[in-house]
Structures are given as C-alpha cells and as structure tokens.
Records
---
Amino acid sequence: KILFSNYIKGIKIRASGVILRGWGFEIVKLAKKVSNETKLPLIVHVGEPLPLLEDILPCLSKGDIVTHYYHGKRWGIFDDNQIITEVKEAVERGVLFDVGHGAASFNFNVARKAIAKGFKPFIISTDLHGQNLNGPVWDLATTMSKMLAAGLSLQEVIAGVTINPAEVLDIESYQKGLSGKKARFTVFKIENKRFKLYDSNNNLIKVDKVISPKFVINGTEIIKASSRYKGN
C-alpha cells in the first residue's frame, strides 16, 4: 500500500487578495476542509487582504503553517504597533509560522519589530523562484543572514533551516545520531565583513556579519559552495 502522505506533505492555498480576486475567506474554509479530510497540514500564503489575517488564523489548527507573514503590506500581523491577538492565539494552538521571503513578502521593519516582541519564525524559507533568484532573495544563505540581522540567534537560524522544516516534512533530520549514515550537509562560515542586505521592499540594512556557504558534503563528494549574492 502506497501512502500519498509519503509524497504530498500539505495542502497549500494562496490566501491573498490579488490572487483570490473576490473568493475571500470561503475558499480558505474549503482548503481547511480538504486539509482535515486528507489529514495533512494546511499551508496558507498570506498577503494583501481580503481575506484578513484576523479571519484566517482562527480557522487554523496545530501543525498548520502560515507563510510570508513578515510582509510589509496592509493589515498584517500588527495593529497599532501591537501583534494582533489572533496571532498570539494561533501560536498557543500550535500553528507554525514560516518566513517565506519571496519577491514581495519580506520586510525588515516588520521582521525586526516582531522578533523584538518575541514572535519568531519556526521555519526560515526563501520561496526562491525565477523572479527573485537575482534579487532580492538570491539564495538560502542570504536569507539566513537577513534573519540573523533581524534579531534571531545563530542557533535559531540554524534550527529554522534544518531540524524544524525536517520535522514538518517528516524526513530524516539526523536528530538521532550521525553514525552509519551517509554524509549529507552544507558547511557554512560566519564571516565578519561589511555587507548590504535588501528586503522585498528594497529597504537596505548594512551588516558586519554574514553566513556564507563553503562546501556541500554528499557522501564522499566535497563540492565548493558560495553565495550568489556578493553584498553590493
């Protein structure tokens, strides 16, 4: 018997006004029904209203994921400079939050303010695709550096790109030891150098510390690695 959950890890809906074009919250409820019937988590892309985040979040349950939530668009996670109640309640229920940088979904000011208030991502993803490959995303290492600059600890950044997404995807994460397993990892180095980082709204921050990939180890093969972004 083949379990489709071995191949399909979740149900995703792009709950953003510019995409739904009038469908609104009803399509989110439909997606949640599919999620419940398949016993798979619902991943919700959030952005421009409608629907409002205040309506989406109460629909979600433990293990569901909200992505792109550090966007700088109207009516996001803040109301009058405070994180909305629905976000706090969702976290308490076990709803997970993912950075999902993307071409238009990561704002330094939102991320820094949220992290300073203790609202941190469980997953750090890039949403890398053809329209952001040459900026503002570039690669995972650059997104990791941005999250370090936004206020996460190095340990939190590492967890956000390793054990946390591995847990969500239910894949081997090396948490039970390394002995006897095929080597499969990337070597990074923290480099002290002045660097320019841009968010999805072209806001600039200057940092003096970046995370740089150096090698990919795959079995006995060692491959040199480097970031596509040079900090210009």
---
Amino acid sequence: MALVEQAVRLMTKKLPKVISPRTHAIIDYAMIGTFILMGSLFWKKNRKAAIAAFSFAAAEANIVLLTDFPGGVTDVIRFETHGRIDRTLAVVTAILPDTLNFGDEPEAQFFRIQGVALGAVTSMTEFTPEQRESKYHAA
C-alpha cells in the first residue's frame, strides 16, 4: 500500500506536461467507462470490488461534468482544482482494495494499476495556462 502511494506521489512531480485539457477529458471518460465495465465484470465474483469500481466511476463522472474544461458540462470546478482532486483519487484508487479488505484478491490489481495510471495522466496534464504556454515558448 505505501509503495503504491509513494509511486503516485513521485510521478506527480517529475513527468513532462504533454496532455492537453481536451485529451485529459477523453482519458477521464475512458477511465469512467473502464471502471463501469470492470464493475460489471466483478459483480458476480467480488461485490466489494464491483461497488468500489462503480463508486469510482460515479465520483470521476461528477468531477468531469462539473469541471470547466472541454468535456465538462458546467464551470463549478476549475481545471486546476480538478487536477488536485485527480491526484487524491489516484492514491485512493490504489489503496482502495486494502481499505475495503480485498487487497489479497485478484481484482485488487486492477485498482492499483488504475491508481498509478491516473497518477501518471494527472502528472502529465497541463493544468495551468503557464504549463500550456511553456510548452510552446521553451528556449
């Protein structure tokens, strides 16, 4: 658990900012769909994992829909705040199996991988105008 959390934290500091807000939205929607699909597949074998997957999908969908970026519906959450929420969700997703007592089951691996993936995407996203501009004005 601590190792995954440290990996996510390290990634959020060092990766280059190469994902645009539009691409980030596309990835978010793909991740929501993946969690819905996996929740459906987990349903008969592991209800805890299924409910966790559906819960993540619902949380991420709400965040995406409320964010002021391409793919969002309203401007309740600033895109920079969306990034801070995603960093937290990355860690929560990775440790969810241990928290819900299915950390030793095969379904736990999905959450750990998704947590690291979300951490990587978040780390590589251009959340601020300065990050988007610096990409084009680097000397």
